[in-house]
From TrEMBL:
UniProt keyword list: Coiled coil
Protein name as it appears in the record: Uncharacterized protein
Record keyword Coiled coil present: yes
Coiled-coil region(s): 6-33
């Protein structure tokens, strides 16, 4: 009986020892886990402090970027207003430049028309004199030819034929009677072929004179038409000149040329300045900055000119 009790007590002691050993192992495991948890907590606290520092740095950079953005917007606004001012000034100067060029072109056109009119008048006057001279020569030739035949037997045949062709203009010889005075000998007999040749030559000269006279008439009518067109052009030029402002009318040619030269030089300078402004605006549009977060993400900050 006692032996059984002792054996039971020994079993209980061994069980208690095993439980105590297991408890000690559990306590050691809990201590290890507690150390790991503390280590993780410390690591997380370090990450939190790092994130807080990154957040503050990011806020500072964001403020700097915002200030840079505001500064760029102010610069762009100033450039935009300056461009509008220069554009208005350029439009005014462009109007003056166009008016000056128009006045100069009108004056050149007026001078060219006057020159052409004078040249045409001189040409037509010379042509008319030449034709009148040739016509007078033809008339003198006709008179001399008729005078030569006035005291010969040819007069009775040639004179009616010339008068008929001159006034009737049909070009056919109508000879009703052939009358010759004297005997038909070697001295007084006329050669019909020679008479026909002389008649043809005289009538040919007369036809040429009439054609030249018609040409002179046509040229005179053309000269009148050209004079009318030139007068209309001059009147149109005067109307355009009257349409200008009194300040432009009072300015002389040299002053207008100087003003035009100054305007062209100013326009060239303003074009270069505007080009440089556009280049600076393009540079401002290209401003950008990349911010890297501690979490690994990257953010790009750039100037937005879409509202402008």
């Amino acid at each position: 009986m006692q032996i059984t009790i002792i054996q039971n007590i020994e079993k209980d002691l061994q069980l208690a020892k095993s439980e105590a050993k297991q408890l000690i192992e559990d306590i050691d495991q809990r201590i290890k886990e507690k150390g790991q948890i503390c280590t993780q907590i410390l690591g997380n606290q370090g990450k939190i402090s790092t994130l807080e520092s990154d957040s503050s740095t990011l806020c500072q950079k964001k403020n700097v970027s915002h200030m840079a953005f505001e500064f760029c917007n102010k610069i762009i606004t100033i450039f935009y207003n300056l461009i509008l001012h220069l554009k208005a000034r350029t439009e005014f100067r462009t109007i003056i430049c166009i008016a000056t060029l128009t006045l100069e072109l009108i004056q050149q056109e007026r001078v060219n028309l006057s020159t052409k009119l004078s040249e045409k008048s001189a040409y037509y006057a010379k042509l008319a004199d030449d034709l009148n001279t040739k016509l007078q020569k033809q008339q003198d030739f006709k008179s001399s030819t008729l005078f030569e035949y006035s005291f010969s037997p040819v007069r009775e045949w040639l004179w009616p034929t010339l008068v008929w062709q001159d006034f009737n203009g049909q070009g056919h010889n109508r000879r009703e009677n052939w009358r010759f005075s004297g005997n038909c000998g070697s001295e007084n007999c006329l050669n019909a072929d020679n008479l026909d040749n002389d008649e043809k030559e005289v009538m040919k000269n007369l036809d040429a004179a009439h054609a030249k006279f018609d040409l002179v008439t046509q040229l005179k009518s053309k000269l009148v038409s050209d004079n009318s067109k030139a007068k209309q052009s001059i009147e149109l030029v005067r109307r355009r000149i009257n349409g200008f402002k009194s300040q432009l009318k009072e300015m002389d040619r040299r002053t207008l040329e100087e003003e035009l030269t100054a305007l062209l030089s100013d326009k060239a300078g303003e074009s270069e300045y505007l080009q440089s402004l556009h280049q600076q605006i393009d540079k401002l549009k290209g401003i950008s900055h990349i911010l890297k977060c501690a979490c690994g993400k990257e953010y790009e900050v750039e100037v937005d000119l879409g509202s402008k």
